[in-house]
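Case study.
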Amino acid sequence: MGSAIADVAARAGVSKATASRALSGKGYVAEKTRMRVQQAAKEIGYVASPNAASLVTGQTQNIGVVIPFINRWFFGEILEGIEEALLNRGYDTTLYNLHPGSSDRDRVFDFFLARKRFDGVIAIGVEPTPEEAGRLLRLGIPMVSVGAPVAGIRSLTIDDAGVARLATEHLIGLGHRRIAHIGGEIGGPDENTVHNKRLDGYLQAMTRAGLEAEIRTARTAMSVPGGYDAGIHAMSDAMSRPSAVFAACDEIAIGVIIAARRIGIRVPGDLSVIGIDGHEYAEMFSLTTIEQQPRAQGLAAVTDLLAAIAGEPSTVEVVEMPARLVVRASTAHADLGADAV
Amino acid sequence: MGSAIADVAARAGVSKATASRALSGKGYVAEKTRMRVQQAAKEIGYVASPNAASLVTGQTQNIGVVIPFINRWFFGEILEGIEEALLNRGYDTTLYNLHPGSSDRDRVFDFFLARKRFDGVIAIGVEPTPEEAGRLLRLGIPMVSVGAPVAGIRSLTIDDAGVARLATEHLIGLGHRRIAHIGGEIGGPDENTVHNKRLDGYLQAMTRAGLEAEIRTARTAMSVPGGYDAGIHAMSDAMSRPSAVFAACDEIAIGVIIAARRIGIRVPGDLSVIGIDGHEYAEMFSLTTIEQQPRAQGLAAVTDLLAAIAGEPSTVEVVEMPARLVVRASTAHADLGADAV
DNA sequence: TTGAAAGCGCTAACAT
DNA sequence: ATGTTAGCGCTTTCAA
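After joint prediction, the assembly is written out as follows.
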């Protein structure tokens, strides 16, 4: 049952301090003693209480992760990447699934995250307010934001507008003119969201190419059904339908492709579609997409956070992920050439 | 910074004991005193240290969740359901993503889960061994298994064979004879996995209907691409292709549908497909599916676990979820009639 | 109704 | 190289 380090010490015939040193590997212990202690610990099935250790060391070996969605590919991958990296480093991952606009938000930031239970916090696509971030920082809890730049804290961000520009320019380069953008739903009207930045990039690219007149945009849910609905709608008028679609994420892109094929439009062939994320299903849909490497982002977030925990906690900076704009190798490549109008 | 309850007590002019009672709501405190203490706590932004409290109470308000996949719809939904239910009850969710066959398995069960950091453990589709389960139980950590019956611990299971039988019988009832089953990959050859139980159910239904000669089975990855590949393969021979497919999960079913349509087979119409899970994309693919209600399963697991924590921890039983075999209302319904051969 | 004191299990000086 | 001691922040008897 609840065997304590005192039991181990007694069994090995040493003091608690020695037992602690032997088991943690910190401090001088004779090799023979160490063996004896470890043996004793094994015999009674001793496992240290992290709570007690945390109380004195101030370290919890536990990271809080705030994420808006679990069941969207991009976020699920980030989460897997984070959990794996953390487990490898001996940390626990405590999960808070905070939907956008959730009324739990205050409770999570003010209570759950502020309890000295975490050595650090990773917020994904959540855009903590300055107050929320400041509160944790003041408590000495380092925080890393992924996908949402936050003043004053380490942020891993992609150049979203740049990615969108690249995607749009890719389609323009293929000779398309009537290029529609199907984006995700906004939070607020002029918020600095990923959706809006991608929209900006699209608008920039279209404008630079002198295609202002061809601009068409729509918004839909960041999901396959969302893309399907938007796709059906965009393709409803055979006369004015776009020859290419830049979708804000691969789920939407896949929905558009399914919709197009459903109504007899070949993809690729009659319609070019480019998405963002590098979704694992891209290949089977002949979808061209821009890799965002969510797992790598998760790993980077962990690395950065643990560095902050180890080094000076006040190091405040914004890390911009290199805009790795890799068009994913897929069967779509060969087709794309033929796509050009 | 690290304000302690002593600071609150001092500020309110009471003892630590009184401050503790006032803040926790346990024990007698004069109303005026309580107000004063809560005011003081608010002023200095005090949040109790759960570690210190855990040390004395033995309660951690933290549940460990072991799950094999995050980025598969069914598992993602269960996880969301669990996290939500736990958060509502004031518990933390600590996540362990343990892939089947992972070498981390021992580390997670023997070290991470066995550290008195958790009031309970939920294992999803993981099938803990008797040793793993026994170890935690001996440590006084209640555990609930979802989707994998484990002797000696509370298990929430669906009658998988029954579900598969129902699905198969549904297709038989529509007049189909050449019904193929496309299942998931097995762990071990004759393990008691969900895959094998669903296969059993299919075989039972086919046999009972006297369709032994029509039995065709295949195995593939539990994903859309997996279903796509298997679908292409199953449909490759126009002569012998099945008129209906019972897929072991909706992802596979969707892949099969996409594959069929890709090669000009109409679904529904030329081919009937039934899946399992109740995937959110079912409707847009006109997919008939059997709801498994993962979120509800997650909620049920939490309810059951917290009951075990509160009540007698030694209550050992197997809870079989009622086999709610609801064919999901979808656009496929209308089509299905026409499907019958 | 409140306070004083003990102690949860561990680690980290400090002493030996 | 090992033991002694103090104390992390909290809750909980037990007295008052």
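Observations recorded in class. Residues 52 and 132 of chain B are 28 Å apart (CA to CA). The domain at 160-293+325-336 of chain B is CATH 3.40.50.2300 (Rossmann fold). We will return to this complex in the next lecture.
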